Amino acid sequence: MFGYGELAVAAAETLIGLGAHLVALVVPSNRTGVDVTRAENMAQQRGLTQLTQPETSDIGSFADRLRALAPDLAVIWSYSMILPPELISLLPLGCVNVHSGLLPEYRGGHVMQWAIINGECETGVTLHYLDEGIDTGPLIAQSRFPIEIHDDGVSVQRKLQLSGTALLQEWWP
């Protein structure tokens, strides 16, 4: 599992509930100002190896540590670093991103906020495979929901969490 924050914890707990064997929680090194305590606590309670993805200068040793864990698949949600091709290629079943927005319209970060700022009537969650681009890989599934007049960032994030975990449940074999 690559991620931090509430969304990543929700995804990890959902996958564990579905019988997935998680081997690690990977957090990005560029998480300045982000509280990863809940994710790290969950990883510790679940006995997951905790790794930090370094900047590209030290990606080789990180890749070696990840390879030693022999994961088949990576699930990513709420992650602020791009995975280089050498990491993506380590996973035989690929990397699946839970993107907190509708693709292809809203790529990149902070898409929930942009959907609200742009006055969108709906947003949603997209599952897609990672490739070398930013949120450009093949789509797996998508779930849409309305942005109501009374919604704010907190309520939309809650809807994203519910929609994203439901998509994971539908998709997981």
From TrEMBL:
It holds the Pfam family Formyl_trans_N. InterPro entries: Formyl_transf_N, Formyl_transf_N_sf. Signal peptide: none annotated. GO terms for molecular function: methionyl-tRNA formyltransferase activity. Residues 26-167 form the Formyl transferase N-terminal domain. Gene3D superfamilies: 3.40.50.12230. One of its GO terms (cellular component) is cytosol. This is Formyl transferase N-terminal domain-containing protein. It comes from marine metagenome. The lineage of its organism: unclassified sequences, metagenomes, ecological metagenomes.
